[in-house]
Amino acid sequence: MSTASPSTTSTFLLSEWIRRAIDEVDLSALANSSVTSNHPSQWPANVRNSMALCSEDYLISALRVARCLADQISEAEDNVAGRENNSDSDDEAPSLLPAPGINWADKVQVHLTSDGAANLNNDVNSKLLFSIEKADFLPDDMSYKGQSEDGMRRIYSLGLVFYEIFSGGERPDETEQPKGGGEESYADDTEAISQELSQETSEHNVDPLPPFDDGDGDSFDVANIFDDDDVIEDEYNLCNDILGDDFFNAENPRKRQTQSCHYKVYDVSVEPLKAKFLPGPLCDLVANMIDCADGNPSGDDSYHKMSEVRDDLQLMLDKPAIYLYDQDMGRAELQFGDRMFGRNAELSTIKDAYRRSASDGSEFVIISAASGYGKSLLAHEFGKHVLAGGGIFLSGKFDQLQQGKPFSALAFALDVYCGILLQGSGPSSKVAEIASKLRSSLGNEAYHLTKLIPNLASILKGPEILAINLNEDCGNAQKRLQYLLCQLLQAISSTFSAPVTLFLDDLQWADQASMEAVLQLLINLGPSSQDYKCFFFLGCCREGELDEGHPLWKLLCNADTLSIEFTNIKLDMMDEQTINTMVSETLCLSPRITRSLSSIINHKTNGSPLFVSRLMISLGKEGLLRPSLSRRRWEWDKDKIECREMPDDVAMFLKKSIRELPEAVQLSLCTMSCFGASVDVTLIQTLERAMRKTFTGGLDIAVAKGLLDKIGAQYRFSHDRIQEATYNMMRDQHRRLLHFTYGLSLASLFVEEGNDDILFIATNQLNHGGPSTIEDPSQSFTIADLNMRAGKKAMEMSDFKLASSYFDNGISFLQINHWTEHYNLSLEMFEMAAKCALTNGDHTRVKLLYQEVVSEAHLFEDTLEITYTNIRALYSASCLEEALTKLLYVLNKLGVTLSGSGDLNTLLPETKTMLAEYSDEQLLGLPAMIDRTKLMTMKFLSIAQLCLFHTNPKSQPKATLQLVQYSLQHGVSDLTSVGFVFYGSYLACLGEIPAGYRYVKIAIKLAENRNARDCMGDVLAVGGQVMGYVEPLPSINDVMIRGHEYSLKTGNISSASMSLAGSMVCEYWSGKQLSVVKSTMDDTLRRMSAQCVVPLLMQFLPFYRSALAMIGKVDDVPMVFGSRADVETEEERKMTETNLHLLKATHFNKMYVGFMFRRYDEVKQLADAHDAIAALPFSAILISHCFHMFYWGLISFWVARKTMDVIWYDRGKEAVQKMRSYANFSSWNFLNKSLLLQAEEYFYLKEFESAKRCYDDAISFAKDYRFVHEEALACELAGYFLVERGERNSSLPYFLRAQRKYREWGASAKEESLNTYIEEWFGEITEGEDVLERPRRATTDLDLRKRRVS
């Protein structure tokens, strides 16, 4: 029976579907791989059928059919049970089931999908018959209401169906009926059983039963007993009692009867199925179903209900490799792969965070749990999800005993990925693209990364690696590396258009430098960043091993401060059901079979996944859990396992397991454990060569025992707890001695081969041993020198925390008389240790090191380096007066005097006179300064500028002028360019803008010529401020961005922040759309906050709030030091009292906002205090100063008109003159401002016609130069002018245009404020044609020549 239609389901009887499906199996692939070359059509029929039955196409389709049937019966049985348990269900339609019997296969139909129905008659082998939609029983045969106690018999009946399905349409020989048999004959059954009973009783010398009298006078013999269904079961049991339990259970083909349902039951063998080479688990499934023939399970593996059959079939479909196909039972060891159990909810949580990180903001996830709970396994399972989605997954692992290598986990993750790229797993063009992007964005700075990531050098294929300058600012070097790492990941992400996920394991051993790098990655590669692609961080950490000083704890605190979302996932122990799943999949047996074993294991291990796996391996070794070759499955001794004694803790269990190993294996494991959780094979071979011992043999045995894994060229402990258990087996002093021995052996090889990796490992081993293990005092110098070398290498890799530990360890190995016997080593060691301590913020350590050097140094010059470090520490700690005192003392001894009054008036003319003798070309060609003491003098003068800037701004130019003169006298250094740019800024501040601009350009060119990378950021940050008085603001913004990039490349965060703040000033005062400006400002604040650039951040906040005031109320405001950036804190107010620059910034921005919103009383009060604040000394010019002057002039004329006080007019007049001079240098930036101030002056003087012309021209030039905000302001002020003149109707177009331009700028709050004014004066207005769009008049008596200084 079949029907076929392109749009309907095609249906076949089961026997027809089996025949067609077997014919449709494509065996050509098997023919190609077999020993015979014959085509499958030439194979014997029985061979072809067997091959087809074993094919994946047929097996999976047949399993789907079987699962559908089991599911249909299981669902109906559940309904029957529910109806029996619920007395209120009488009105419900009964659940119909087929009556138990041996011919169920004739009642089954298979439905194919409609897609397959359209081409059933085609000859093309399209596998259409494998498109199973469902299978079920014919409706006419579903008439039996069913009883719950018939469940076992239904399992038996369905087992016969499965036999037929998987055998290819054959039925068991035991169930075959004579031809024309039709329905089963109950009378024939009775007669047959009666005859059999008579025969068996005579064989066993049992007398026939006498006639039975039931008390009514009627009697019957044993043959007639089978005419009564009510007593058949009793007679069945009676015969078994008399003749033995196997009377009705003898070897086939003997029949067993259960007549209450009127069907025959047969012992059926599945050996014919096995003979067809069907999978063993499938044969066992059918056998276990047939074991339910008499209504009771006859074996431990027999089924108890149909839902178990359905579940097993589903497992075979879902995981055929585990549950369907035969396993290799020849291996004697259990194998635990990387499968994850019971963590799906946690996995979904990580996936959700990953998706959010791509759109909502930076986010990261930390997985925490006790050791052995599956943290790493969960993380790597998520890694599969990332890779499947086209993402990039980088993975590294921290190690308690491998912390001697800088950025160990992070560097490993990146180096492995670069190695994969080089091996050709990706297109070579992509590798070249990454290299091109890095060279383009970073230049030669990219090569700083190659010290950390060796494989990156092969990708870049560029010039030689840059020489590392250990005398540079260590803090800058560390920030530089963080920036370079960000650029590397951004280049990788953009090249492959894929998000990057970084996974770092065992964060409890993480170093501070790595965690700081991760924080910068989250900040710089988050959705708010310009170059965002996607960066997601995932980490694993042991629970309960963090304190407030831990680097990860600091990361979490910083993330909270910076509003970076993070999710903490805590893993608990596995429940019994999950453990059963784990045991089931490991043993490749159905969960129903392993449930009892899993219960015992759960009880003994308390749900620890590691304990479960190690216990099962141990049981396998003891033979309590063993493979059965005859049954082709695992089996176990349940009672013995339950009685087995177990340690309370997995660590004790592991130690016990290790102690049972041969002594040589234990020694090899102990040796490896001294190097951490994983060791390269090459290191073991190196150690063998150095010590002339053999370790690999013992390690290979440990691999065979499952304690180690050998992956590629690396040995790894199967779990960290195994490494820890091995390591902790040794006494502390013994461990130290081993570390020291291994370190000395490897150190000798380093001296011969010069391998940096061996240097780090050897020195780390020696440091683990400690000074107490030294027996020969002469070794102290050697070990201290090794620490010195390792510390310098760590500095080259910008890991200053690690470098500091090397230097401190080196100092601890020095003997008491080291200053006498090893002076140079001691001096250099202390200098380097002080530098690293400064970078790490340990100012107390710097002071102690400084004091010892000063007391032990032979010469004053020998103290200069550490004195400079100590002064910088005092500056960083805000001990400015003490720092300045030491500076003046040192400079005085070096022959440079900064103290004294009246020196500035002498120094400036002297400097101008000296410079007058040089042309620009001659200045750029000055010889280089090479004397070390003079170079140190330049460094002291440079930091003197900073100290004087904060303590005595009037005297700051003294240090600047001395820098310039010193360079002219002794040659130039990189710091000369800094001296020239500050000199130019000072001249500009004095009003000599052309001269200041000239020296700024010389400073930039000088830095470029000398390739002064470390100074270029400072030069551009300061120089850009001066250039803003000459060149158009948009181009100055480009200079600031360039300075920001230079500073980031070199790690100069202070200069980078200054450039970024300058860029924000340029964008705001250029009239850029405020929503864009705010977004960039938000990112700037977050960066400053993360990098703790406190002084500049505090000065930037008032400006940021001015922008927010123009925009109006916004919810999206970054957090700064725990508070919203739009709220002034008490800490800021206190700093305003002592920080003059913050006071100026705060005062001006409050006055500016009050003016823009026309709050006269507030502005007047602030303006009264302005003179005193404006008079505060300032020795460098900022681009913001001109805007301060502009708005101060507007405010002064406003107050002057209100008060008619000539003092205010004089202040406004001063601003007019200043702005006019600025306009002569840059008409682009200042002409419209000068005209607007002139208009306000004419307004005060009541020269109304001149005022009107200046207002209109200010509007026109603001439009020409695209200062939309100043166009709006000029229109608004012109409107107020006309209102006060009484020309209210003429003012309306100006107000409307102002409102429109404020809207265009994005100043919603200002637009709304002006709209309120318009409605009060004019009512509701519909904006019409702009009457102000008309030709510009020739204007005023101003000099409008558009001159620029070239």
Automatic annotation (TrEMBL):
The keyword Membrane applies. This is AAA ATPase. Residues 340-528 form the Orc1-like AAA ATPase domain. Residues 78-100, 169-189 are annotated as: Disordered. The keyword Transmembrane helix applies. Keywords: Membrane, Transmembrane, Transmembrane helix. InterPro entries: AAA_16, Hybrid_Histidine_Kinase, P-loop_NTPase, TPR-like_helical_dom_sf. The chain crosses the membrane at residues 1172-1194.
